[in-house]
Amino acid sequence: AQKVTQAQTEISVVEKEDVTLDCVYETRDTTYYLFWYKQPPSGELVFLIRRNSFDEQNEISGRYSWNFQKSTSSFNFTITASQVVDSAVYFCALSDDSTTSGTYKYIFGTGTRLKVLA
Amino acid sequence: NAGVTQTPKFQVLKTGQSMTLQCAQDMNHEYMSWYRQDPGMGLRLIHYSVGAGITDQGEVPNGYNVSRSTTEDFPLRLLSAAPSQTSVYFCATRGETQYFGPGTRLLVL
Predict the structure, then answer these.
(1) I want to staple A36 with a disulfide (CB 3.0 to 4.6 A). Which of A48, A97, B7, B10 is the partner?
(2) Are B49 and B55 in contact (CB under 8 A)?
(3) Chain B residues with beta carbon closer than 8 angstroms to that of A44
(4) CB contact under 8 A, B97 and A108
């Protein structure tokens, strides 16, 4: 069965600190996709990144970076030099390859609430 | 290009009342879905559709009905609302990733 675990319920950091949000997943599929979404206090869900299972290259986008390690089934998200505007709930999600499975499974973790203090 | 729109933004119902949450998209995506978000539980899939005329159940379908008569619209119906259905509801479409609507906050008294 597919599962996404975000063990950190809430994290508080002081502005300019670096912070890493953990995501551990379980799947038996060989082809799958991993995602991160941000949910700011306003409530909308903002797409951050999509990564397929065959691409283990780390990715950096400004202050955001992602570390994908298949060996440990982890897809961790790091914010460098955090800012107050980064305060939000962050969700990790796992999807199968619907083009082959046809099942369209899309599993979310329970989210990590990040509070960045000024 | 509005993306995914949802109406209403907020609704209060009494137990036993019925209502329809509306969802529309202008991205011409075949796949649409409904999620509910509850504290500490992330998002859970209610129903989904892979195209007009085709719907299927997700993880938590009980108490909800859907239909898909057009590519653009995917309404979610609560036939007899219960307090356990108090939640935030998100509609989504799927291209390379899922695009979410702004959400509907529902309170059932």
Answers:
(1) A48
(2) yes
(3) 100, 102-103
(4) no
Q: Which residue of A has its CA nearest to B94?
A: A104
- Beta strand segments in B14-86, E: 19-25, 31-37, 43-51, 54-57, 64-66, 76-78
Mean pLDDT in residue range B14-40: 94
How far apart are alpha carbons B103 and B47 in whole angstroms? 15
Q: If you count DSSP H runs as helices and E runs as strands, how many of each does chain B have, helices first?
A: 0, 11
For residue A40, give the chain B residue with the closest CA: B102
Nearest beta carbon to residue B103 from set A44, A106, A109: A44
Over range B73-88, report the average pLDDT: 97
Closest CB to B40 among A35, A98, A110: A110
Which residue do the tokens 């509609």 mark? B91
Closest CA to B23 of B83, B84, B98, B86: B98
Residue among A35, A44, A50 whose CB faces B102 most closely: A44
Q: Which of B22, B27, B33 is CA-nearest to residue A98? A: B33
For residues B12 and B34, what is the distance between their CA atoms, to the nearest angstrom? 19
